Every structure is written in C-alpha cells, then in structure tokens.
C-alpha cells in the first residue's frame, strides 16, 4: 500500500512538474519575425522592444477586469512586503506607478491601446485620479508636516517621471480639480525630506513636473537636491549611492539625470543639465564592458529583480546622437539583456515577473520589495522615447570590442578610478566580471542586504551567478571563517588598497573578530583568477574558500581529479561550464560541496572549496588558482598550471607565467598606502 502511494505521488508530482514546465514555456516571450539583417546577434528591432513591453503589460493586465481593479499581484513567499494591512495601499501604488513605466511609452505612440478589454489610458488616468480621492481604497494622504521620506515618495517620483514624459495622454485630459488635488498631495512629498541617495531624484521629478505644469513649487529645494545629486558622481559614469556601488548606482542616477535633462532641465536649468549630460557621456567608455559578449548582465548588488532596467542608459545614449558611440553594440547589449530574462522559463509566474534573478530566489530579495516592485524594470522602455530614425535603432548590431579588440587567451581589465571598481572581460568564454565595494556590518545593516551575498563576494561574473552561503560552510567566491560561536562567517568588511600591475589589492577583517584579518590580491588570468592572500591573524583560523558555483542543469555535475606537477587539480563540469581549482600554497585539502536551495539557476548545485586549519598564529601565504572553461573544451597542462611561485617571503610573492613574464605581489604596508 505504501509502495503504491509513493508511486502515485511520484506520478502526480511528475505530471505537476511537467505541466509547470509547459506553462512556463507557454509564458516565455517569443520573438515574432526577427530581423537578423539589422540585428544579426539578437534579431530585435524597436518593434520587438514594443512587443516585449506589451508582453509584460499584458501579464499585469490579466489582473485588471474593470477600472477599479488595483495593480495588485500574488505575494511571493518570504521577506517581501506586504506583511500587514497598512502596507497594502503602498503595494497598490507601486503596482500602478511601476507598470506605468511600461505603459506610458506605448501610450505615447498609441493612446487607444486596449489590453484585456480595458482601455489602458483610461485605466491609468482613472487610477491616478483615485490616489487623491479620500473615498478610494487607493487614496494616499498628504505627507504629515513632520513626516520623513517613505516609499510613497519613491512612487510619486516614479509617477512624475511618466507624467513628465507623457503629459498629453496621462495628465492633460484630467479635470482641473483632480489635477489640483493630485498636485497638493504629490508636492507635499516632493517638497520634503529625502534620503541621501538616488532618492533625491524622486523629489526632483515631483517638483519639476509640477513646475512644468505651472504650479508653485519649492525651487530652492529643487536646485539643492539637484546639486547634491551631482555630488554623488565619482567619475567614469559611476555615482555613489551612499555608500554602495552597484548596477543601480550607475543606471538609476544616469537614467534620471538624462531624462530630467532632456524633458525639463535643458529648458529651465541648462547649466545643471549640462553637468548631468557630461557625466552621462562618461559611461560609454566603461559601462558596456560590464556586460558579457552575448549581452548578459551580472547578478550583482541589490534590487537585481529590476533586471532589464540596468540597460536603460544604452538607448538613452540616442538622445546624444554622439558619433563616438557604437550604437550597434549598445543595442546589442540592451536587447541581449532583454532576451536574457524575458525568454527564460522561470522569469514569469502567475503572469508576473518573479522576485529573484531568473526565477524566485529569496536570498536576493530585499524587504522593501513587493511583487509589483519588479516593474521598476519597465524603465528600460523609456528608451522607446528615442525616435525611430535615431542611430540607436538603425545601426547594425555588433559585438563591439569583443570582436574588434579583444583577443583569445588574453584578459582585459578596466579600472574605474575613484569608484575603485574593477571590470574584467574574458574573451575565451565571453564573460564579464566585477569587483567593487563591500564594507557593511550585519549588526548595522538594518535592511539586511548590503552585508549579504549581494555585495560580499570577492567578485561577480556574468557566467556564474552567485550562490548563497550555507550553514555548513558551503561558500562560493568568498572566504568563510569559523567564528567564536562555531558558526561559518563570510568576509564582508573589505577595504580597497590599490589596483597596480594587473593586481587588485584589498584588506579584509572578520566582523566578529578584528584579530582575524587578511591581505587579498586578485590577479585575473585568461581562463580565471589567481588568488594570493596573506593571513595576518594572530590566532589559529579554520577557513574555507570557494570557487564560483555551478548549477545542476540537464545532467549530473561530473567531478574530475588530476595531478599536474605535484598539484592536485579538481574540476567540476555541468555541461555548460567547467571550473577548476588548484591549491598552490597554504591550503590543506579540496572538497566538492553539493548544495540544495542556494543557487538562483537550479535547486541543486556544486562548488569547489579549499580548506585550511592553521596550525599556528604566524602569518601565512595562501595561493589558489580558480579557473574555468566552456564544457567540452580540453585542458592542457599549461592552462591548468599557468603560473608558478618562484619566490616567497612574508610580504612579497613572486610569480612567473608560462610565457616567461613575472609579477611581484607585494603586501608591504608602505606600498599599499
């Protein structure tokens, strides 16, 4: 009986999984009539961008059957809100204002758009007006006199951005009394306190839109927030988001500055607009290198559920009409990222994008997000405001430097200066990689994301999305240390020192024990990374270091072990990529660690870890090769052992490459400072 029951349940489970896969496949965005003449890499034209926007909007409107229905979607289990009824009005506000990013550019071209038998423009005008109706369940009260900034300011800033760029459809048809009521409420938030981050732009857009419409606004505060926003700039296209650098600190600041300048600033504050546009111009020489050859983005930083929003600066380059911009490459990257997610079978659930990276992934979710938050990604469709005949749309797609400059068996680093970011490109697998800021204590991280895997990995790679840490010491692309409480604790308090001679230097201290501290040196190679790290701790340390993890895909992950010149080589292969780890100095042993529920691409994954239990409190050098190739490619001995240690002291390690060149990794204090 039990055997029959088990077989029955297994069959039901199999049918359920099969049905889910079919549902997911049916839910995937499909390119209709791709144009491989103008877009040989992706097949996508401006029309396909409109199709993608419509695909997302149709999913949202599957919940709208009459004008009174709010943009409210099924909650995803986990830390996302709402967690109490008081948060529901803000949840509905997010759904409304964020889906409007997708709808507004479509309505600008087609004001009569109908979805699910609903006139889309009528719906948004009706719902916007209801925000100022005290009798409406979606009513938003004016900001209290002494109230601080909150999520309502964010959403009103978002709404103002759409209104500023499409007032003819969304604003002008409203009766004057509704306009006045909305102005009173929205200005109460815009003319108020903000957060010292990209949030200042939410105030800026509210005040700018209503000034454009003839309302009296606090122009002194508007200029103050504009000037303070400019002070976040750190060069090479990067703004600092107090304190973080991530995708969002690039694309949000740059998009806001560009849209504000184009639709308002050039008319009213031309000198400030010129500064924003000068900063925007800097990104063309840096930001494209953060994406893979195939136009894929790295899983890195907070709010990764916004996904395709990260590429909005590329179409907005069209407003510059700059002959120095390779527009075909910019569109190739942007279209590639759109396809990266919209064509993935796990991207949509219940007709709505999941909170996660590809599918649902709780470790990457922030507690300020609700299900409708994902439509922040709709900002990519602000690119549709760029005219049809613009070079961004009509230039032939190409792979840019990946085809014209990058060479096989080489590695390319682009150090970003004051932001201390390092972008690395690997032509052999077409992957991009980034190293950036992380220095946040768990005890100070009240929102619980800047101290996590979103930021605390040693590096982030487009080919290998980050894996979350496990309770048993499972770790990918970071160290974990056995702390005083006998728990595995990841490094997160990194301090950048310098980038010199192709070596990226950092120091790190364990949060719960300042006497556990390391000097770190990353050396990107053609097929991976060489790590030379110095343990400066004054006590015995039990530690693990992880490579990038591989998800289980269509077949089992295969482990292979070899011995090259006395060094043990451990390789794992998932059918798409293979990664290898080689201990050169210091480490005791190597393990392949299997995990469940920690990887964003699969429930099952594997990662190679090296382990050490130091025998004394003396400083010690650890050297590790962390390599990769595409699956099916053979390794030769020189690829598995591309370097050798030729000299070592406590402070300087000299390495020699197979081509005869050498580098000295120096941890001398006088050189680091």
From TrEMBL:
Domain of life, source organism: Bacteria
Q: Where is the DUF2264 domain?
A: 45-398
Task: Return the InterPro entries for the record.
Answer: DUF2264_N (IPR049349), UCP014753 (IPR016624)
PANTHER family in the record, alphabetically? LINALOOL DEHYDRATASE_ISOMERASE DOMAIN-CONTAINING PROTEIN (PTHR35339)
What is the protein named? DUF2264 domain-containing protein
């Amino acid at each position: 009986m039990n055997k029959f029951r088990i077989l029955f349940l297994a069959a039901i489970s199999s049918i359920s999984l099969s049905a889910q896969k079919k549902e997911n496949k049916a839910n995937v965005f499909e390119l209709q009539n791709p144009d491989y003449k103008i877009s040989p890499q992706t097949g996508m034209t401006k029309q396909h961008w409109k199709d993608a926007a419509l695909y997302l909007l149709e999913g949202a409107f599957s919940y709208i059957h009459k004008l009174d229905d709010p943009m409210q979607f099924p909650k995803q289990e986990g830390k996302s809100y709402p967690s109490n009824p008081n948060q529901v009005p803000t949840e509905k506000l997010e759904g409304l204002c964020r889906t409007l990013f997708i709808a507004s550019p479509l309505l600008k071209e087609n004001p009569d758009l109908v979805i699910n038998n609903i006139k889309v423009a009528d719906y948004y005008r009706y719902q916007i007006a209801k925000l100022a109706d005290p009798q409406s369940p979606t009513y938003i009260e004016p900001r209290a006199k002494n109230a601080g900034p909150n999520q309502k300011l964010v959403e009103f800033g978002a709404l103002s951005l759409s209104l500023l760029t499409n007032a003819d459809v969304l604003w002008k048809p409203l009766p004057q009394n509704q306009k006045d009521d909305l102005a009173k409420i929205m200005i109460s938030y815009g003319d108020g306190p903000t957060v010292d981050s990209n949030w200042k732009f939410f105030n800026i857009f509210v005040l700018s839109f209503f000034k454009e419409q003839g309302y009296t606004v606090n122009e002194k505060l508007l200029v103050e927030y504009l000037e303070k926003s400019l002070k976040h700039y750190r060069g090479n296209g990067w703004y600092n988001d107090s304190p973080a650098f991530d995708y969002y600190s690039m694309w949000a600041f740059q998009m806001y500055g560009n849209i504000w300048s184009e639709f308002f600033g050039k008319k009213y504050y031309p000198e400030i607009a010129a500064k924003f546009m000068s900063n925007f111009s800097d990104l063309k020489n840096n930001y494209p290198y953060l994406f893979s050859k195939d136009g894929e983005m790295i899983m890195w930083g907070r709010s990764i559920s916004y996904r395709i929003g990260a590429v909005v600066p590329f179409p907005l380059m069209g407003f510059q009409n700059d002959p120095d911009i390779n527009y075909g490459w910019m569109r190739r990257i942007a279209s590639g990222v759109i396809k990266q997610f919209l064509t993935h079978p796990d991207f949509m659930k219940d007709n709505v994008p999941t909170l996660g990276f590809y599918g649902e992934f709780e470790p990457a979710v922030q507690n300020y997000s609700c299900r409708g938050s994902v439509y922040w990604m709709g900002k990519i469709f602000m690119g549709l405001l760029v005219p049809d005949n613009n070079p961004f749309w009509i230039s032939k797609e190409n792979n840019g430097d990946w085809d014209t400059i990058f060479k096989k068996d080489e590695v390319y680093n682009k150090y970003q200066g004051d932001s201390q970011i390092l972008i690395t490109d690997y032509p052999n697998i077409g992957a991009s990689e980034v190293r950036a800021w992380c220095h946040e204590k768990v005890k100070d991280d009240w929102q619980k994301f800047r101290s996590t895997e979103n930021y605390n990995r040693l590096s982030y790679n487009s080919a290998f999305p980050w894996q979350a840490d496990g309770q048993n010491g499972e770790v990918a692309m970071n160290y974990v240390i056995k702390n005083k409480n006998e728990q595995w604790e990841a490094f997160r308090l990194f301090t950048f020192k310098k980038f010199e001679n192709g070596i990226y230097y950092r120091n790190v201290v364990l949060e719960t024990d300042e006497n556990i501290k390391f000097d770190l040196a990353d050396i990107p190679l053609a097929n991976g990374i060489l790590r030379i790290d110095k343990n400066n701790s004054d006590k015995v340390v039990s530690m693990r270091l992880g490579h990038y993890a591989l998800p289980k895909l269509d077949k089992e992950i295969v482990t292979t072990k070899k011995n090259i010149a006395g060094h043990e080589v451990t390789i794992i292969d998932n059918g798409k990529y293979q990664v290898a780890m080689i201990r050169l100095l210091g480490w005791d042993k190597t393990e392949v660690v299997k995990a469940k529920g920690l990887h964003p691409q699969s429930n099952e994954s594997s990662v190679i870890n090296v382990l050490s239990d130091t025998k004394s409190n003396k400083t010690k050098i650890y050297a590790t090769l962390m390599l990769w190739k595409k699956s099916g490619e053979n390794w030769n001995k020189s690829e598995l052992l591309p370097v050798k240690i030729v000299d070592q002291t406590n402070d300087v390690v000299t390495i020699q490459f197979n081509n005869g060149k050498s580098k000295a990794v120096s941890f001398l204090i006088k050189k680091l400072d």
